[in-house]
Amino acid sequence: MKRIFLLTAVAVCATIGVMAQQADSISIYQNIQQVEVTAIRAKGDTPIAHTNLSRSEIEERNYGEDIPSLLATMPSVVISSESGMGLGSTSFRVRGTDPSRINVTLNGVPMNDAETHSVYWYDTPDLASSLGSVQLQRGVGTSTAGTGAFGASLNMTSAPLASKFSGRASLSYGSFNTAKQEVALSSGLLGGHWAIEGRLSHLSSDGYVERASSNLSSYMLQAGYYNGNTMVKLLSFGGVAKVYLAYTGLSAEQMAENRRYNPEGEIIIDDEVVGFYDDHTDNYTQINNQLIVSHIFNDRWRINATAHYTYGNGYYRNYKNDQKLAKYGFAPIEVGGALVERTNLLRKKSMGNNFGGVVASAAYTAKRISLTMGLSASLYDGVHFGEISGLREVPDFASAEYYRNNTSKWDASCFLKADWLITKGLKLYADAQYRHITHRISGVNDNFDDTTSAMQRLDIDRHYNFFNPKLGLHYTFSRHHAIYASAAVGQKEPTRNNFTDIREGEYPTSEKMLDVEAGYTYETKVVSLGVNLYYMLYRDQLVQTGELSDTGELLSRNVPDSYRRGVELTLNVNATKWFSLGGNATLSQNHIENYVDYIDGKAFERGRTTIAYSPSVIAGTFFDFHTHGFAARLSTRYVSKQYLTNGEYEDLTLPRYCVSDLDLSYTLRTKRIEKVRFGVKIGNIFNAKYCASGYGGSWLEGDTLDDRRSWACYFQQATISALGNVTLHF
């Protein structure tokens, strides 16, 4: 893998000598750093629902929390945090779709894990401090590299290198010992050609949930060379994370007793909790490298090529109570003349990842038409292995490995996009992508297979070929009014768990979606109004049915027909120079047709049901006051009831909630320093006691649904909290 990255980097760098031209213009310096943005970004007149965050907006909202916290007030977005504080294990959903269906890129490079398709934000802590801009596209979105966008795409860019010497120091501290220390320096443009900057950060928190602590260190290094219309930029960023596990939610009864309780790490002896295991933690190191070459040939042609390589290595260690040794492939062990068949044990699961490839694009712009061509190719190589490192009743037990498997995944795609100005105000958008995936998994898995009475054997070799066309129109019919419509096809391969948590021979198929959207926008200096209608029609969507796999895990199956449809409303009003307000709301229906729910092996036809974790109402408002360096922003978000399973049972729901945050800041500017910003964020200012995520299930005490009983667990979020920050720019 490292050889692939080095060879690709050498090939990219070899083009520099051919393309380089002499010029030292600062305007060119600033313009060329935006080349890598254009290939996968939606423009203002692209018929795709999207929301942008600028560099200044990111800085205003950045207190050190994970990226999902920056997106909290965007249309159709719901965020959650296992620690309850927005730092550590966090995630977000868009239109009800889970993180494994949201394509995430940085500078066009995929960030989704190749196997789970999710992004683990604590692997790149404090990434927000190094971002230049963010665009969240809802729906299929524009063609991009990496896993298929099945609900949204999050496109991020790193901050451009500064043209003059500058620096930043930032300190945050607040509730639950949440803290951030950051320092960054930029050299500015040296000798008209060179620039370098770096950032170091440390973040920590005890977490709102007991022991859900985070200890995160990160860095970002950028070095750039500019010569005429050519830029070569090297980025290296990543972090080291240690996070105490908080994977287990609480029942309603447990929350009533102590809503901050964390059952992870419990040491149970004779049915009594006698303590907690201190090193019940997830530990991971990730290093991301990107080598970017951009060149502007003339007013019409520009290109960009990026070679990338990501190294990841880590493990999580946890204490497990009352475990059957047979479930780990071990025979009973004789101790003092007695056989030990089950006991408390210490388990360590490890993984190593290598991911590398190239992403390239070329753009052509003429008077009435613009074309963008792109291609990407990547190879993932990973290993999973685990060991039992201690047994409570076997003091002299030597560590023993109980599973090991390997994964390789080849992903290649190409696309062609066109924007054609048919006549004044009327633009046609067309986009076509071809994508090929080869996914192989082999070895022994960590799940015990009851059908073979042995650890699960893996022998997966799957190939996918997807063609994803997109077509849309955007019409500006007066100075302030515009309408648009689009239709797009998205396709997605199964995740690793969809292959491992199966019944023998019942492999899942890929999923397909037709996304049809239409909207209206009204834009003036005072008012910005938007209405977007969407209909996302799924074929063979993978959902959990309540069945158990051969290894006892929840089984996901392809359901033939399902859909999401709704309307997204946005409004922003700049009432005066010092006051603005606005909001957004999503009203939706999210259904599976003819759903069959399985409880204790029995099938129950449920007809049309609501897709789990899909609220019918998501809404938010903000009020922004700003004058003479002082700013105050009150934001509120509301999320309606969500079902925890696809069976649509009223006793398995996540209650609705409404949360408000207040952000206060004052920015001081002097002749000696650029600015100092003093800020405090008061989260959940009205002290709502709410849960943003959860899970649950059912069992039978008879043969009918009337005999169904349920259980549910919830992830509790922080009550009122405060986080202060001082950031010095010089």
Number of strands: 38
CATH H-tier superfamily:
TonB-dependent receptor, beta-barrel domain
Question: Rg from C-alpha positions?
Answer: 26 Å
Total helical elements: 8
Query: Which structural class is indicated by helix and strand composition?
Result: mainly beta
The residue-averaged pLDDT reads 92
Span between N and C termini?
40 Å
* Low-confidence regions: 1-25
Main CATH class: Mainly Beta
Q: Please, could you describe this protein's structure?
A:
It is a single chain. The chain has 730 residues and is mainly β. Helix content is 7%, strand content 60%. The protein is built from eight helices and 38 strands. The protein has a 22-stranded antiparallel beta barrel. The protein starts with a helix and ends with a strand.
Short description:
By secondary structure, the chain is mainly β.
What topology emerges from the helices and strands here?
Layout: H1 2-13, H2 16-19, H3 26-32, H4 35-38, E1 50-53, H5 55-61, H6 67-70, E2 77-81, E3 90-94, E4 102-106, E5 109-110, E6 131-138, E7 152-158, E8 166-174, E9 178-186, E10 194-205, E11 214-227, E12 230-244, H7 252-258, E13 266-269, E14 272-276, E15 281-296, E16 301-324, E17 333-335, E18 338-340, E19 342-365, E20 369-391, E21 400-423, E22 426-449, E23 454-476, E24 481-492, H8 496-500, E25 511-523, E26 527-548, E27 554-573, E28 579-599, E29 602-610, E30 617-627, E31 630-639, E32 642-643, E33 653-654, E34 657-668, E35 675-683, E36 691-700, E37 708-716, E38 721-729
